[in-house]
């Protein structure tokens, strides 16, 4: 019976693994399939020949490097801004005796749950009124609207796991609230802050709707919007789309491969106390 359960378990895991990895394999295989073989009447799982012509076309004939530069600038800046604000907000809600802080914590969660489709029109009106439409700064200031609630909620759980006695000892020794936060609490919460930073960067890197609404010029568009521009009417430039998708996903794959242990530790350490 035990052997049967193992077979069933491994069978489900194997099916789930295939379902998860097949789109990635298909994207990579399509990006390496030459145009002459891409539209064969009978599709094949394995490309009949391998070519890098789509990658050459991507770098020579499209502003892909500009899209990449814009994504790096917007993701990094919005991540740093969001982590800074989230740390201050989470510390204030969990440590300071503010009136209505529980209601504020609930409001933060409710804000995080609001779908972007409800907010993108008022957000565009606000950005336009500030003369920031079609600029990278407009995106950098827009992304914290959904990154800060997420980061604040995550860090609130993590800050609650840090004993208050450590903070009180620092205050008795003469540290101010500001010094206590950045010299005592922040280093102890470094795994949680790192997780929030990584997830914030990922969310900003993949964000599409706000970037589509706020930016219109290719010189300020990010990767998701730039890749969507490879669809012209009813013509899908699959070679460009798949090669750009592979290159766009690669930094995230490398990032999570390197920091996966920290991510798991940071998430589980902050989950033991809600």
From TrEMBL:
For this protein, the parts annotated as crossing the membrane are 7-28, 72-92, 104-125, 137-159, 180-202, 208-232, 244-264
Is Ribosomal protein among this UniProt entry's keywords?
no
Where is this protein localized, as stated in its record?
Cell membrane
ABC transmembrane type-1 domain: which residues?
Answer: 68-259
Q: Which Pfam families match?
A: BPD_transp_1
- Out of the domains of life, which is the source? Bacteria
- Keyword DNA damage attached: no
**This protein's UniProt keywords:** Cell membrane, Membrane, Transmembrane, Transmembrane helix, Transport
- Describe its membrane topology: Multi-pass membrane protein
Q: Which residues form the signal peptide?
A: none
Sequence similarity: Belongs to the binding-protein-dependent transport system permease family.
Name of the protein this chain belongs to:
Carbohydrate ABC transporter permease
Q: Which organism is it from?
A: Carboxydichorda subterranea
